[in-house]
Amino acid sequence: MTVKKIRDTLRSGKDAALDTWDQVTSDQTSRTGHSAKRVASQLANNVDPEVVALQITKNSLKNNPDDPQTFTGEEVVTVAKFYAANRSRPVLTRKQSNALIAAQKEADAGSSPSVNDDVPEPQQH
Q1: Residue 40 class from Cβ within 10 Å (0-12 exposed, 13-18 middle, 19+ buried)?
Q2: Domain that residue 38 falls in
Q3: Hey, what's the torsion of the CAs at 38, 94, 29, 75, to 10 degrees?
Q4: How far is the CA of 76 from the CAs of 79, 98, 99, 123, in angstroms?
Q5: Is residue 81 included in any domain, yes or no?
Q6: Considering its fold, how many domains does the chain have in total?
Q7: Which residues contact residue 36 at a Cβ distance below 8 angstroms, ignoring those fewer than 6 apart?
Q8: Cα–Cα distance, 74 to 47 (Å, whole number)
Q9: Region Disordered: start and end of each range (predicted)?
Q10: What is the pLDDT of residue 122?
Q11: What is the spatial distance between Cα 79 and Cα 47, in angstroms, rounded to a whole number?
Q12: Within a domain: 24
């Protein structure tokens, strides 16, 4: 066996072990972050976005047969962009998220003016 084959075998075994570890110890939030990092890494290494989209679409069909998601190359680029936006800090904090959700619930309940309430109606001529 050549050194390259040994190295490739070890790398493959390591990747499989890490994938198994991720399955056992992760939740959807951590899986999403890991997957976004992998997408960003693939694009940074010139893997075509359509190829990445096809792979994750196929995996979604297999992993979530009751609610599979399909992806396009454009969406994959957006995943990488979102990953980059979170490089040093969350791009959206829990406090901000909760405030936006609360404001939307108030608006949906009718207890808060709509964003469009300040927009005048078009004039009839």
Answers
A1: buried
A2: 29-106
A3: -50
A4: 5, 26, 28, 43
A5: yes
A6: 1
A7: 79, 80, 82, 83
A8: 13
A9: 102-125
A10: 61
A11: 14
A12: no
How much is the pLDDT for 90? 94
Token look-up 């072990």 returns 17
Using pLDDT thresholds of 50, 70 and 90, give the confidence band for residue 124: low
What secondary structure, in 3-state letters, does the chain show?
A: CCHHHHHHHHHHHHHHHHHHHHHHHCCHHHHHHHHHHHHHHHHHCCCCHHHHHHHHHHHHHHHCCCCCCCCCHHHHHHHHHHHHHCCCCCCCCHHHHHHHHHHHHHHHHCCCCCHHHHCCCCCCC
Q: And the tokens for 112?
A: 């808060």
Predicted model pTM: 0.67
Residue-level pLDDT at 68? 97
pLDDT digits (tens, 9 = 90+) for 16-46: 777 676 667 778 899 999 999 999 999 999 9
Quick: pLDDT tens for 1-12: 787 777 777 777
Q: Is residue 9 part of a domain?
A: no
